[in-house]
Amino acid sequence: MTVNEATEVHCVRELAAKDFKSGAHPIWCPGCGDYGVLAALERALARHGRPPHEVTLVSGIGCSSRLPAYTNCYGFHGVHGRALALAAGLKLARPDLEVIAVGGDGDGYSIGGNHFIHACRRNVDMLYIVMDNRVYGMTKGQPSPTTEPDWDSEIAPGGIGLRPFNPLSIAIAAGANFVARGFSSDTEDLASMIVEGMGWPGFAFVEVLSPCITYRPEQSDWKGRARPRARTIEGDRAAAIGAVLANDDFSMGVLFRGDRAAIPAPQSPTATLAEIEQQFAIGV
User: Fold this and answer.
1) pLDDT in tens, 170-227
2) What range does the domain containing 38 cover?
3) Domain membership flag for residue 233
4) What's the pTM value of the predicted model, to 2 decimals?
5) Dihedral angle over CA of 150, 152, 157, 160, nearest 10
6) Is residue 280 part of a domain?
7) Rounded Cα gap, residues 44 and 98, in angstroms
8) Is 8 inside any structural domain?
9) For residue 84, what is the domain's CATH number?
C-alpha cells in the first residue's frame, strides 16, 4: 500500500492498533515488559487519530530502542543517548509531525542524562517514553542509573552503593510540562497516559516500569506492587517533586501537569532559497 492509498483509507475509517504494526517480529526476551509498551503505544496512536505517515519514532540504543522497527511509522534508530537531541531537532524542523522519542533507563539517564535534563528545560512539544527496568539488559545485566544501591550481581557484588537517579522529580524540576508513570502490563492505562501526553502542550515524559525478568527475575512481583496514584498535581512543581520523592516508585498515573508555554513552531520562511543564498554571497 502506498502512502497516498493509506491516507485515503484513513480518511474513510477510524484507525486501529493494527494500522501501526510493521509486521516485523519483536526479538525481545519472553516475558519482557517492552511487549506491553509496544501494544499500548499502538493502541494510543490509533486513538490519537494521526495516520502512521504523520508519526515519527526516534530511539537510541538498547533493547527498548528497537521499538521503532516494530511500528508502521517513520522511525530513526540513532546512537546511544542521543534520541532526544534528534527528536527535538526533527520537531523544530517539522512541527507538523507527531514526534515521539523512546528508549531505556541506560540510554536515557546515563549517557543521555544531559539531553534529558535540557529537553525538559526547553519544553519542545514532543513525547518521551522511557522503559525502565533498572538494568542494562542488552549488554548482559550491568547496573543502570536507576538500579537500587544494594542490588547484588556478578558484575557488582554487594551492589554499587549509589543513590538511584530519580527521573520523575528531575523532569518536573527541570521544566517538563507533563510527567506520568505507567506499568507495562497495564496497557489500557498506559495507552491513556500516552494519548494525554501527546495531546498536552510542551515536553511530555512517560516513565514505564518494564520488567526485565531475564536479568532481574525478582521484578516479576512488580505487578502486585503497582497501584493507582490518588491525584494529579497541577502547576505546583514543588508539591509534585515532594510527592514523587515521598512515594516508593510504584504509584502509577499522571503525576504532574504544568502550564509552561511550549517552544513555538518555527515560522515558515518568507524568503526564497535564492534570496537566502544571496545574503551570504561574497562580492568579487
Assistant:
1) 999 999 999 999 999 999 999 999 999 999 999 999 999 999 999 999 999 998 898 8
2) 33-262
3) yes
4) 0.88
5) -40
6) no
7) 12
8) no
9) 3.40.50.970
Domains held by the chain: number? 1
> Domain for residue 13, yes or no?
no
Residue position matching grid coordinates 524540576:
173
pLDDT one-digit tens code per residue, 77-116: 888 889 999 999 999 999 999 999 999 999 999 999 899 9
